[in-house]
Design goal:
By secondary structure, the chain is of the alpha+beta class. It has 5 helices and 15 strands.
């Protein structure tokens, strides 16, 4: 159970000139339990994808798996119809950074890397996560990119503590990514989640350590670094107004967790 004196903590940090979260961002025990249940379903959906994904299937086949498994487990796929998005998940292949739209025409082949991004609504609560999948025999370069991306997320989560600062997350991610010769996308980040699909705060995947909002117990956020093999710069597909690509055509990888900040540490609610 989250038990904090919100007003006293806010006063303490504001006196120091440190920004604090709005009270609405502190989830109640009931809300946390609802998000946790949504997270369990979301994780099971990604597990189902992991069991079935292979060369020769289309990204629309993945969308069908996500949709059917979510419904089977009592959830609702949040992306479907969100601001006009036409599918139940995002499937981003190779140089697609994020928000790839599943298609019957996109056939996975040996050597591809793909991110599958799912968000589940259960009883009105949201949980959000994504995973990378390496199809068949991938190049060492692709495998290492995926590995470093996952390491950067796990490192950020390992270092995350109650009352740490928001930009510490991005600092830890980008430091690890740059040390391995890759780059982090700046324009897209994580976000608060739980009572809605996207809430405050915006979670940067780069930044200066010791800056940004202080993170109170009871906050639920996504951390979802997008790591490019070369330039960090990206562009939006002008035809569908959804899919983001690497500017230079290089590969991109992404992992995402939904994370609860607790009084004694953190809990990963969806992965």
């Amino acid at each position: 159970m989250i038990m904090i004196d919100f007003d006293a903590l806010t006063k303490k940090y504001n006196k120091l000139g440190i920004p604090t979260p709005a009270k609405r961002l502190i989830k109640t025990p009931e809300q946390i339990e609802g998000i946790r249940k949504a997270g369990i379903i979301n994780t099971q959906v990604l597990d189902e994808v992991a069991k079935n994904i292979k060369a020769g299937m289309s990204t629309e086949d993945i969308n069908i798996i996500v949709h059917n498994k979510t419904i089977e487990l009592g959830g609702i796929p949040a992306p479907l119809g969100y601001e006009g998005f036409p599918k139940s998940c995002c499937t981003s292949v190779n140089d697609e950074v994020c928000h790839g739209i599943p298609s019957e025409d996109c056939i996975l082949k040996n050597g591809d890397i793909i991110n599958v991004d799912c968000t589940t609504i259960y009883n009105g609560y949201y949980a959000d996560a994504s995973r990378m999948f390496c199809i068949g025999q991938c190049s060492n370069e692709a495998l290492n990119l995926v590995k470093v991306c996952k390491e950067s997320l796990d490192l950020a989560v390992k270092e995350l503590k109650p009352f740490s600062r928001l930009r510490d997350i991005g600092y830890n991610i980008e430091t690890h990514v740059k040390a391995n010769g890759y780059s982090v996308v700046h324009e897209i980040g994580g976000h608060g989640v739980g009572n809605d699909f996207h809430e405050e705060p915006f979670v940067y995947h780069f930044g200066k350590k010791g800056t940004g909002m202080v993170l109170f117990p009871g906050m639920v956020i996504t951390i979802e670094p997008m790591v490019n093999e070369a330039s960090r710069h990206v562009f939006l597909d002008a035809d569908n107004n959804w899919t983001i690509y690497t500017e230079d055509g290089g590969l991109s990888a992404q992992y995402e967790y939904t994370v609860l900040i607790k009084e004694d540490g953190i809990e990963i609610l969806a992965y």
